[in-house]
Amino acid sequence: MFSRIARPTICIATRSLSTSSQNNAKVAVLGASGGIGQPLSLLLKNSPLVGELSLFDIAHTPGVAADLSHIETRAHVTGYMGPDQLDAALKGCDVVVIPAGVPRKPGMTRDDLFNTNATIVATLADAVARNCPEAMICIIANPVNSTIPITSEVMKKYGVYNPNRVFGVTTLDIVRANAFVAELKGLDPARVNVPVIGGHAGKTIIPLISQATPKVEFPADQLSALTARIQDAGTEVVKAKAGAGSATLSMAYAGARFTFSVLDAMNGKNGVVECAYVRSEETECKYFSTPLLLGKHGIEKNLGLGKLSAFERSDTQWHIKT
């Protein structure tokens, strides 16, 4: 056993997952007992940015909350279970993260999840609109290309829609692009940044390798294969798990990274940029993912597409404004 004095400090030393600033934000995780929700909640519990962690799911949440509450970090954890406790879980929340929904199985596309997950997200969005309408809403539940418009319409119904506060979390696409580029080039993945625009499903995922930092170049065939791998990476995990689930751990990491960026910006940190699927006028699509400058009140500025390569433009020509 380590002595109290000798106990090592726990630190996730990558990107915006590591921060020394503090605030007392109340963060809700809706779907906290699931494959994404549990590791996501663990990462949030470990952050000094979180003062209160409100966990909700239809089952098992008290156990998850009790387990996390034994961790010696500052966030106070409360668990809520079942529809009757949903409103209580959301009261006073500053950020709401929604990983709730069913996962993909082999042979399923994200669109196959629509009928089930659309209803779940609509129900949760309704509760957010009634209980914490000014919260930042971070949607992980797939298909993100559909669940973001659904959330927006629910918020509009209550007259509380703010497009600067509703985000489709596409961070996993960026995380994968960074990892895959770093692997191919022998770079430190924590120092690689590849913007990913478009949507969050298949061909709508458009990694901008030409805008990567540090600058990297690939032969045409390798670039095409790399792009396809980033677009199909979710299916890669689903197949590898052979029916036992989808991308849960990497999605939890990506969801935490995005949540911490939102909290950092709300806490006054300057220069916080993340890609996310949001209401947009950058293209012909009403919703589109691009790099966003985040601020205290959500999206401060949409940074747009930037300069696209010929390869990237060929993939995006169907939705770029002419």
Automatic annotation (TrEMBL):
It is an enzyme of class 1 (oxidoreductase). Coiled coil: none annotated. The keyword Magnesium does not apply. Substrate binds at residues 104, 110, 142, 176. GO terms for cellular component: mitochondrion. Residues 26-168 form the Lactate/malate dehydrogenase N-terminal domain. One of its GO terms (molecular function) is L-malate dehydrogenase (NAD+) activity. Transmembrane segments: none annotated. NAD(+) binds at residues 31-37, 57, 117, 140-142, 251. Homodimer. This is Malate dehydrogenase. It comes from Salmo trutta (Brown trout). The lineage of its organism: Eukaryota, Metazoa, Chordata, Craniata, Vertebrata.
